[in-house]
Automatic annotation (TrEMBL):
<feature type="transmembrane region" description="Helical">
    <location>
        <begin position="248"/>
        <end position="271"/>
    </location>
</feature>
<dbReference type="InterPro" id="IPR036116">
    <property type="entry name" value="FN3_sf"/>
</dbReference>
<dbReference type="InterPro" id="IPR015373">
    <property type="entry name" value="Interferon/interleukin_rcp_dom"/>
</dbReference>
<keyword id="KW-0472">Membrane</keyword>
<protein>
    <recommendedName>
        <fullName>Fibronectin type-III domain-containing protein</fullName>
    </recommendedName>
</protein>
<dbReference type="InterPro" id="IPR003961">
    <property type="entry name" value="FN3_dom"/>
</dbReference>
<keyword id="KW-0812">Transmembrane</keyword>
<keyword id="KW-1133">Transmembrane helix</keyword>
<dbReference type="InterPro" id="IPR050650">
    <property type="entry name" value="Type-II_Cytokine-TF_Rcpt"/>
</dbReference>
<dbReference type="Pfam" id="PF09294">
    <property type="entry name" value="Interfer-bind"/>
</dbReference>
<feature type="region of interest" description="Disordered">
    <location>
        <begin position="342"/>
        <end position="377"/>
    </location>
</feature>
<dbReference type="GO" id="GO:0005886">
    <property type="term" value="C:plasma membrane"/>
</dbReference>
<feature type="compositionally biased region" description="Low complexity">
    <location>
        <begin position="353"/>
        <end position="366"/>
    </location>
</feature>
<dbReference type="Pfam" id="PF01108">
    <property type="entry name" value="Tissue_fac"/>
</dbReference>
<feature type="domain" description="Fibronectin type-III">
    <location>
        <begin position="152"/>
        <end position="245"/>
    </location>
</feature>
<dbReference type="InterPro" id="IPR013783">
    <property type="entry name" value="Ig-like_fold"/>
</dbReference>
<dbReference type="GO" id="GO:0004904">
    <property type="term" value="F:interferon receptor activity"/>
</dbReference>
Length: 416
């Protein structure tokens, strides 16, 4: 016992001894001050404990802090009577920050907790500073998580998303009577609020009635819970223009836009395909045919590729022997000339076979069994017949010409 403790009264010495026994490590200095002004910064289920500290108390060294918590019901007299000290849960240990985040410990929303903070300087610790905390009553309520607007004719639909906890669960799980306070106004040309109106609703979709068509309106929403008089801050303003009856010029513009879109999406690709097909067809199958001479040479040679014929091969490719059979004309009786008493020495006679049948083609109608010998006029008539055959052949084939005609043999040499 120190000399100071000897001079103290007995009750004061007992109180000092009790303080030494309940300290964290058994070493406490009266001059080391404890943290002050413990406060909670909360939003839905996000909790942050903060405190103040007198910097002059830690001039001799660096300071760090330890934060603990425990459920309040564990500190009741019934448990203390059994001489069982409560188990404090350390949330932050020896941290230099003047705050401690308790969100990750998922404190029960309807529970009551006792929080305490202690300072530590060079192994010397201060007394604990305590604070009670109940999330249901002390935690602040946050604004809607999201607010969207959608036109509904001349009205506006407001889509409100519930505020959420740290685990993305709706706050309506903790506050079933939560509702929304909607404030909306008409936005003027100078960005000024005109005719502010309010609306309360617990639904997540709210329709703002009696709005002017083709007018800009702005909306902001606040979360409220009346049991503990909780009110959140307002959400940021969202603005949108209402709609109305569609004018005729706008309908016409939509129609023209649809036509242009249809042309670009459907007709233009079809037209491009048609042009490509036509170009390929004209390239590989042209409508302009080859000239007649070249076409003739192509067909006569039998080759796929046209070529010119050399002059040396004209007689071989285009000349051939043509056999001409003489035509026999049966003359009527009156056309047969009278027989001559004698024949000219150089006249040519028709050939007869051994059977005595005539081959001259002239027959008698007087009933005589003998054959008449051809005379000069008969030979001239036969020459005229061959001339007629030659003329008919030239009519049938203008490109052919007879080089030599042998009447007796009936053979004609023909060339182009």
């Amino acid at each position: 016992m120190t000399p100071k403790e000897e001079n103290l009264p007995q009750c004061a010495r007992k109180k000092l001894r009790f303080t030494l026994e309940t300290s964290l490590d058994g070493h406490v200095r009266a001059e080391l001050k404890h943290p002050k002004n413990l406060a909670m910064i909360t939003l839905n289920t996000n909790y942050m404990l903060t405190w103040d500290w007198d910097q002059s108390s830690s001039e001799s060294g660096a300071v760090n802090f330890t934060t603990q918590y425990v459920a309040k019901y564990k500190l009741t007299s019934k448990r203390l009577s059994k001489k069982k000290s409560p188990v404090w849960i350390t949330a932050c240990e020896k941290t230099w920050r003047r705050s401690c985040d308790l969100t990750k410990f998922s404190l029960y929303y309807l529970g009551i907790y006792v929080l305490r903070v202690q300072a530590n300087v060079n192994g010397d610790v201060s007394a604990w500073e305590q604070k009670e905390f109940c999330p249901d009553t002390d935690a602040d309520l946050g604004p809607p998580n999201k607010v969207d607007l959608s036109p509904a004719g001349s009205d506006l639909d407001v889509f409100i998303s519930d505020p959420v906890t740290s685990t993305n669960i709706s706050m309506k799980e903790n506050h079933p009577e939560l509702y929304y306070h909607v404030v909306y106004w008409e936005r003027s040309a100078g960005q000024q609020a005109v005719g502010t109106q309010t609306l309360d609703s617990s639904a997540n979709i709210v329709t703002l009635p009696n709005l002017k068509p083709w007018t800009w309106y702005c909306v902001r929403v606040q979360s409220r819970y009346d049991y503990y008089n909780k009110k959140s801050i307002f959400s940021s303003p969202h603005c949108m223009q209402t709609e109305g009856a569609t004018p005729w010029w706008q309908i016409f513009m939509y129609f023209m836009a649809s036509l242009v879109t249809t042309f670009l999406v459907i007709l233009l690709p079809l037209y491009s395909c048609f042009r490509c097909y036509k170009t390929l067809k004209e390239t590989w199958f042209p409508s302009v045919l080859l000239p007649t001479p070249i076409q003739y040479l192509w067909d006569s040679t039998g080759y796929d590729i046209p070529r010119l014929v050399s002059p040396e091969s004209d007689s071989e490719l285009l000349c051939d022997r043509v056999t001409v059979e003489p035509l026999l004309h049966i003359l009527p009786p009156e056309a047969v000339p009278a027989p001559l008493s004698c024949l000219e020495p150089d006249s040519r006679h028709s050939r007869q076979d051994s059977s005595g049948s005539g081959d001259s083609g002239v027959y008698s109608t007087g009933g005589s069994s003998g054959l008449r010998q051809p005379n000069t006029s008969h030979s001239s008539t036969l020459a005229e017949v061959f001339d007629l055959v030659q003329v008919k052949i030239q009519d049938m084939a203008p490109g052919l010409k007879a080089q030599h005609v042998n009447v007796d043999e009936g053979i004609v040499d023909m060339c182009v």
